[in-house]
From TrEMBL:
This is TRADD-like N-terminal domain-containing protein. Residues 141-202 form the TRADD-like N-terminal domain. It holds the Pfam family TRADD-like_N. SUPFAM superfamilies: Pentapeptide repeat-like (SSF141571).
Amino acid sequence: MTNPSLGRRKSKITITASPKGVKIAENALVRLGFDSKINFAKSQIIAPNTVTKFFRCKPIQPDSFKRICDALKLNWQEIYEGIEEESEQLERIDCSSPDINEGEEQTQIIRCRFVICKSNKTTIKGVIELEGDINLINNDFQAVIESLLRESSGDTVKIEDIKEGSIKIFIKGSQEDIERLVSLINSGEITTINGLPVKDIQVLSESSDDDKSTESDNKWHASIKDYEENFISLINSGELTTSSGFPDEDIQVLSDDKWRLVQEIVSEPREERRLINTDLSDADLSGACLRYAYLRNVNLSDADLSGADLSGAYLSHVNLSNADLSDADLSGGYVDFVDFSGAEVKYVNLNNMKKFCILTSEIADKLMLVSEILDRPSRDQSLSGVDLSYTKLSDANLSGVDLRDADLSGTDLRRAYLCGADLSGADLSDADLSDADLSSTIVTNALFGGSLGLTEDMKRDLESRGAIFGDRPPVPVS
């Protein structure tokens, strides 16, 4: 059977702010009275991490980029530096290879990355005439003047020559920067440069950055400009196709509709919400009520779901990559073909999961293990050396389990049953052991520094059995 996704391209488009654009945005943040970037993010229901990326010149999704700029009363086209498209395409492999069995459909994923920097090919040349004696100019004059011009008009301005005729400074730079300089001088905002009166400024000509560009180069730059203008048009209209992260499942959504839905979820909490083919990427849904929700083909990448209630929810083909799920409640839920790659999963509640099938990744393996421990406790199970740090294992039955050298730092082990478990060499620093059963537990050289919920009597008892608190050296193992 032919795979319907063959030949279909899945793409992700992102935009990056320029350093100059970020400075403008930071000034706007102060001017509009926002006391922090976190509060600004909250006001726009955008995940704080997305706003942080914007101000660090990291790529974010177009609708989020435009929303940030709109909220700061800025034209996003003056803030961005580049547009990037990453795409994947599934293609058939030549089946004539002897290593491929006849009748088997073989495919490969072709990935490509395409980056467009803001078009700025036009260079304008000009001349500024200053009153003064050219013979009095010292060696530092050009550097000082160039620095002053860049500070007032833009980083592309460069002095090419200085000639007599009073003092004539020949400059070149981007059309935007030179036009800004002309405007500042003609309006009277700049009347002197380094103490010398400005007599006149003239634009001489426009030229390409590379006068020797071939016809094919010109066609290439024209096609890039068309490509860029097409993206700009789509972003301005809000009409973008967002990939859910799964083959053959693109999400068509208008950005205004997306943010209206985010606002509705946050302000009108209700159970059993149905979300199908929906883009909620970059959204701030921290603490949101999504109990018993039905989510299929939903993009929640980079979203803030910390503390969200997803108990009893049905999640199928959901993209949670790079999302913040700290303290989120997924208990009693149905999770099928979900991407957790890069997600923050501290203290996610995975109790009583109906199904837990997720895409393979280091984080996914950790979550699968937690789910198995909670759902299928097995005495004498070997978990030696595993990483269970900052997971939620409250009420877990770990009786008799081999946890030697395991990383349980920061783990929620409240009311956990650890009777007879082997914790030799394990790291339980900063773990919460309130009401945990540690009777007959082997704790030789186990680290308990900063752990919570232990009385002084319990600490002394554990120390007598070889546990380590603070900087006390390990007890020799007999």
